[in-house]
Amino acid sequence: xxxxxxxxxxxxxxxxxxxxxxxxxxxxxxxxxxxxxxxxxxxxxxxxxxxxxxxxxxxxxxxxxxxxxxxxxxxxxxxxxxxxxxxxxxxxxxxxxxxxxxxxxxxxxxxxxxxxxxxxxxxxxxxxxxxxxxxxxxxxxxxxxxxxxxxxxxxxxxxxxxxxxxxxxxxxxxxxxxxxxxxxxxxxxxxxxxxxxxxxxxxxxxxxxxxxxxxxxxxxxxxxxxxxxxxxxxxxxxxxxxxxxxxxxxxxxxxxxxxxxxxxxxxxxxxxxxxxxxxxxxxxxxxxxxxx
Amino acid sequence: xxxxxxxxxxxxxxxxxxxxxxxxxxxxxxxxxxxxxxxxxxxxxxxxxxxxxxxxxxxxxxxxxxxxxxxxxxxxxxxxxxxxxxxxxxxxxxxxxxxxxxxxxxxxxxxxxxxxxxxxxxxxxxxxxxxxxxxxxxxxxxxxxxxxxxxxxxxxxxxxxxxxxxxxxxxxxxxxxxxxxxxxxxxxxxxxxxxxxxxxxxxxxxxxxxxxxxxxxxxxxxxxxxxxxxxxxxxxxxxxxxxxxxxxxxxxxxxxxxxxxxxxxxxxxxxxxxxxxxxxxxxxxxxxxxxxxxxxxxxxxxxxxxxxxxxxxxxxxxxxxxxxxxxxxxxxxxxxxxxxxxxxxxxx
Lengths: 292, 348
Fold this sequence. Notes:
The complex is a heterodimer.
Chain A: H1 2-32, H2 39-57, H3 60-81, H4 91-113, E1 130-131, E2 134-135, H5 140-162, H6 164-174, H7 176-181, H8 186-212, H9 220-233, H10 238-259, H11 264-278
Antiparallel strand pairs in A: 1-2
Chain B: H1 2-7, H2 10-13, H3 19-40, H4 43-69, H5 76-93, H6 98-120, H7 125-138, H8 140-145, H9 147-150, E1 156-157, H10 173-196, H11 199-209, H12 211-216, H13 221-247, E2 249-250, H14 257-270, H15 275-298, H16 303-324, H17 328-340
Antiparallel strand pairs in B: 1-2
Helix pairs in contact in B: 3-10, 4-10, 4-13, 4-14, 4-15, 5-6, 5-7, 5-13, 6-13, 10-13, 11-13, 14-15, 15-16
């Protein structure tokens, strides 16, 4: 029973990290209809910057804030300088450019920081909570991860639901032409969308860094799992991304706990296929009338 | 009809009027060129040629899938793995000859491609990409799960295929591999050339452009999409089998997600939907890593920079090609040709 609880809590804290990545992908997909394969490399860069700041100043919080800020800047730069030029082109071109950016970022990170993995400090203790005499694997640091991701999700929901900026971003994503006629600065909204997404990704990077270590390629798996989670939940739906990520987090945690971690990706594939065969556009995306 | 003819490249027009004779002519010309070229190369370049040729076999199928039917697959690296493991198992453990093993590889990937294709025909755009991506990541796990059969993470090896004795003692094994891969690539060229110019190819393009209109014309959209997926899967299986011819091994690490992504890259950077594009894409995938390695080795740089410069060049090339030539190398060359001879329109 204790192991089951351990696996469940582990699945939730992993799922929270996948949720942050999935949210980043969904934000960009909604804004510009691009699956940002460079996201994993972007959050790797911001995590390196945060690590440098934390090591210099000894402050975890300062590193966290720098990660957020550098995420915002990097996201805006990537959109403005590169992605803007392929947003209107064939959709696959944007994918290839994103893959090119991924390769470039990984190589540049290797040049600057070498390929040797570096440890990243935990925000809180990783010694599990004690419940009724047994020590769980779930620790204050895991709780921190879950709380941070819940806060991000709530903040994003509030942004899109209650603010003028959020409304403009939704309008720009939904009908760019109409939004532009109504005075929305559509291009600027796309930049904001990318910046915001990269910031959410940066948070995921800082949260996952202590357990994967910081190296140029170490964040690839969470991007892949985050993408699978986003597809599972429906790429158009932020709540779908969070729920998809929790499902993937729990299932991979159970499978790797009971059957071995080698089967984890296979389990993710099976679950994704089961869901997509029933709902071809993910669990939570709005059903569109499409008669074929 | 005349509009259609005007849209085909003039080189191909020289080869005759019917698609069949034109494709045969193209195959013969390509075969002669390959024969002459492969004889001139050194051993290293011959194995590079063989590599490029098996990439071409995979990319030709993939460009038909993505370019003609509009489905995006990120899982063709895993299909190559299926073909490769089939050949390695049959040749290495069962003692089969190479050609039947390659045919078996095609059959196996076709068999796996059928359910995948049926599933794929229900999915669109990023959802299909996500599903095939999960397949590409998940499948290699099987090799580790059944280490006795598949050799675990070490994979399986075979002895290098040796040229038959009638070719003479001086005939190198690398040239023999290039011949095998060349014959297979020509077969794929013939097949895909005819398929994309047949009624099936036109139906697929109709489906790609507008599914609803196509289905109203009586085309069975899911069946066509599944069929395109199965054909491209068969090409990937053949390519995977040829991978074994060149490298004599199959390991889970030989077919990572990066391979699937590289295949997609090759198809798009070369020029989506055209066999010339597949050829350019195969050349890029084969030559670019070597060239960027040479460039970074020729400069005296620190170890970190030197080790990573090839990847930086690769990434930068992808971005620049896509920004400068949105329709890939083929599109770029056509644009150049248009500038050179403005009296001849080639806008296909």
